[in-house]
Design a protein that fits this description.
The chain has about 450 residues and is of the alpha/beta class. It contains twelve helices and 17 strands.
């Protein structure tokens, strides 16, 4: 019976193939070329030269820029968007966000409400935050820590076109030691299970290596560590080291083996120095960094992601936090201004990052103006995104500047941006990879 069935099947396949062979073969239809859009404005900041050119013109086809500059040819039939007295700038690249979390003015209420949400519910919140972030001009975001792998799910949903948001590079759970800034709050262990390596909490080099591997297994594009204490955590001092040199080297070495970069949350100077010596790629916040550490970062090409606007925010809101957190906010905020000015003087590499969720989502561009208020030029502030963050994230060959061949990640802001850096906070047009996601009427 097996031979008969096999023979019948074989005969049927032969007949089907014979019949198929007699069907004429037709060439597949050629897909039409993607539509062309031309953006015209009074000015253009290309993100590479550091200067403004006038007039500004960018030609976009599909997801890419095909021509830039006043002499660029406008193809027949192209859709032309006239933006008047505006400046075209590269889409913002925010290297420090928490889009997967919500901002609440009442810290305690927001914290405990968030604890009660199922991951799927939180994903809907994250999607709303992502849309607000994109419409604010952030076309690429690095998400440096989220619970329940909500950030991985959000990245995947955006890439699949299921929801609107920036291109995202995500970290999964941030990694740190027991009781540290990356650990959960000190709930009674009989009521809330303590976190372990899957949730990024580790002790000793081997367990920290395991925690790193777990984040990468479940989809992390990068690794975030808590090298020092933090402000908005309840049990730890703000500036002390929380990972040993051996733990740092295990995490960073494992991540780099997988070609993943490592961002180190560190307000404290000693912790940042340990992380830099271990090979970290960026120091986030850096409130208490000293001259020798900033010089070492410059020497090794380690970026400072200062999240300046968050320091301004928490210092202003310090009285609304629980007393221990308020005291840490005042200490970090008071030290941060002098540190930032010192970093400028030394020439430490700086990348644009904001710590979104500490403040309301969608006002990321305030970071540009806040850095300018501390002595950075408007041009240099814009370059912290187009050059700093793009290179830190390893995507500078794809985006960050307005050049032919790059993704059409473009923002238009009112007037001359170098005369008014706060214009970045009010984009009149946002385009992500050639798709128009916001245009003022």
């Amino acid at each position: 019976m097996k031979k008969l069935r096999l023979g019948g099947l074989t005969a049927g396949l032969l007949l089907a193939c014979a019949g198929h062979a007699q069907t004429p073969v037709t060439a597949p239809a050629t897909a039409p070329a993607p539509a062309i859009t031309v953006l015209k404005a009074a000015h253009l900041f290309d993100g590479r030269s550091g200067s403004l050119t006038s007039p500004g013109l960018v030609v976009v086809q599909g997801s890419k820029i095909i021509a830039v500059g006043a002499n660029a040819e406008v193809p027949a039939g192209a859709k032309v968007i006239e933006l008047g007295e505006a400046t075209l700038v590269p889409g913002y690249i925010d290297a420090h966000t928490h889009i997967s979390y919500d901002h609440e003015d009442d810290w305690a209420q927001g914290f405990y409400e968030g604890m009660l949400r199922f991951p799927v519910e939180q994903s809907f919140h994250a999607g709303s935050n992502a849309k607000a972030t994109l419409r604010a001009g952030v076309t690429t975001a690095r998400e440096v820590g989220a619970g329940d792998f909500v950030d991985v799910a959000l990245r995947n949903a955006i890439e699949a076109g299921l929801t609107e948001g920036p291109r995202m590079l995500v970290a999964g759970y941030a990694i740190g030691s027991t009781g540290g800034h990356c650990d959960s709050s000190p709930f009674p262990p009989q009521r809330v299970n303590p976190s372990g390596p899957l949730q990024g909490v580790c002790n000793g080099p081997e367990q920290c290596r395991e925690a790193t591997r777990l984040q990468m297994k479940y989809g992390a594009d990068l690794i975030k560590i808590c090298a020092s204490g933090g402000v908005l955590s309840e049990s730890d001092p703000v500036d002390v080291p929380q990972l040993t040199s051996e733990e740092l080297r295990a995490i960073i070495g494992e991540a780099h083996n997988w070609n993943r970069k490592v961002a180190a949350h560190s307000h404290g100077d000693a912790a940042a120095k340990l992380a830099v010596e271990a090979g970290v790629d960026s120091i986030e916040h850096g409130s208490f960094l000293t001259t020798p550490t900033l010089q070492l970062m410059k020497q090794k090409g380690v970026y400072l992601v200062p999240t300046r606007m968050t320091q301004v925010w928490v210092l202003d809101k310090a009285d609304t936090y629980p007393p221990k957190i308020g005291a840490k906010a005042r200490a970090a905020g008071a030290s941060h201004s002098a540190m930032f000015k010192n970093a400028l003087k030394i020439g430490t590499p700086i990348a644009f990052g904001t710590d979104a969720a500490v403040y309301p989502h969608g006002i990321n561009a305030q970071e540009f103006g806040d850095m300018v208020e501390l002595g950075m030029s408007p041009s240099a502030a814009l370059l912290t995104s187009s050059q700093g963050s793009a290179k830190l994230l390893g995507i500078d060959k794809e985006t960050g500047t307005l050049e032919a061949g790059k993704f059409a990640d473009i923002v238009a802001v009112p007037g001359d941006v170098l005369q008014n850096i706060r214009a970045t906070e009010k984009p009149v047009l946002v385009m992500k990879q050639g798709v128009l996601v916001k245009q003022a009427e």
